[in-house]
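User: Here's a chain of 334 residues. Predict its fold as tokens.
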Amino acid sequence: MENYTITGRIGEGAHGLVLKAYHNTKGHEVALKKVLLKRIDDGIPTSIIREVKTLQQLKHPYIAELLDAFPTGIDFVMVFEYMPSGLWEMLKDNERSLTALQVKCYTKMLLEGVAYMHANKIMHRDLKPANLLVNSEGILKIADFGLGRLMWEDNTHPYSHQVATRWYRAPELLYGARFYTSAIDMWSVGCIFGEMLNNSPLFPGETDIEQLAIVLRHLGSPTPESWPELSTLPDYNKITFPYHKGLLWEQIVPDAHQEAINLVKQLLVYNSAKRLPAREALHHAYFHCMPFAAKNSPLPKPPQDHRIQLKPKEIDANVKLTTLFKDLLNCTYT
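Assistant: Prediction complete.
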């Protein structure tokens, strides 16, 4: 820890504290994730080992980079690039909603990171706005791999169903599935995309049963045709829900362009085998063109230190766009 000077406190979660710090010799800001080792005799918790191992394997522009990791006293510290903002904070900023361009760009970056992760046989299992951070250049990065798991090729290895934050939890998990695929991450991506389009969560349940009820009310009651494996899931028929016809997608995401609606409904599919994979979602028509209003609009930088201050600040409207966005900005809907 002698290499770092603590300059602020970013947040605190169930597993530890996140601090803002300055690297004394390299001269740049970092984020220190400190996890308390409750029982030193038991060694480093498996969740930390899994996160460190996963991040050592995954090296991608849209995945948070682990710069260092070390024990100190009764804590274990992971060092990351300092990210001044995050998608959760941006969605909570009631004075400034995300623009259509921001939604498109952040969704594309998220899908690029998820496609890379899945190609490397890793499931994240807890994708949500709070785990999607944004650096000072406006680049979104997937963070917090504490629930990350290696995918088994034959899909015969059981996993825990108590994963993913409730609002972003795939319906097969809500029904107690122990055998599942990376499609659970794609359901989360669909929920995040819909939340960006609406500027509010799609399925905000307060309990697992209410969560499932909200999903069924929005998407309609599943049938053997729309969800063949439903009757085989452990918690099927433990509770009976009334029949729901479901809402039109234009009611679920009322202000979205038709191509955005088409993408979100291909992600939020009951049958996980038919849920659009990340690599295919990247080729969706939604990413091929840009609304007229956004044609010449630059991508705003996130407010500085947004994660700490949580106060809206003026955004520089003249920042340079990265190469990633230039092709998107030069096309319009026809």
